[in-house]
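Appendix B. Chain record.
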Amino acid sequence: MADHLLAADLATRAGQLLLGVREEFADAEAAERKAAGDRRSHEFLMAELAAARPDDAVLSEEATEAELANSKRIGAQRVWIVDPLDGTREFAELGRDDWAVHVALWQAGELIAGAVALPAQGITLATPDVPAPAAGDGPARVVVSRTRPPAVALAVRDALDGVLVEMGSAGAKVAAVVQGHADVYVHAGGQYEWDSAAPVAVARAAGLHTSRIDGSPLRYNRTDPRLPDLIVCRPEYAAAVLAAVSS
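C-alpha cells predicted for this chain:
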C-alpha cells in the first residue's frame, strides 16, 4: 500500500476503534475514557506500522520510554509521526466531534504524507489530493481553543477585523481551515511535532500557508519534539497574520 493510502487507512481505522472505545466507556469516568482511547489507539497504530513498515521509525505522543529509546528515529530517513488521539478532552465529552487522529510520514527532511481523521464527523482528510477551500464571504474567521485562546490569536482577529471560532483539538482546527469553515489558525501556547505534522501535511496539500509564527519553516523529527507555535491560514491572509503576530 502506498504511503498516502496507508496514512489515510490507519488514521481512519484508529478513529473507528476510538468510536468503539467511546461507546464502551460511555458510562465510565472521563479520565478512564481518555486513558483507554489514548492507549488503544497508540497500540493499534504501533502494531500496524510495525507490520506495514517494519524498517521505519515511529514518533508517537503516547510512546513509552522503552518505545522512544528503541525508535532510532534520529538519523532515520523515514519516520511516522502520529498522535493517536488529538483532543482527549473533546473525546471524553460524549457528543463532541472536534477531536482527531493524526498520521504523518516524514522522509529526509520533509513531510511527504499525512492524514487527519475526524472520526465523529465521518471524515478523513489525506494527502496527496486535498481540495483547496472555497473563500468565505464574511469577516475572517480565526479558529481558537474553546478554553484558552492565545493572545496572538486575539491580535490576529483584531488586525483582520475578524471573528473567533471556538473549537477543540489542533487537528480539528486545521481541518476547519482546510474545509473552508475557518480562515486562520494561529497557536503559540506550546505544541509538539505530533500535534501539527499530519495537519500541516494536509494543509500544504490544500495550498494553505503553514509556518512558525515568525514565518520560519516548520521542521520535524528533531531531537527535541517540541514545536510550540504554528500558523495555518489561507494564503491571502498570510502577510497580515505574520504582521499581526510580530507587532
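Further analysis of this model is presented in Appendix C.
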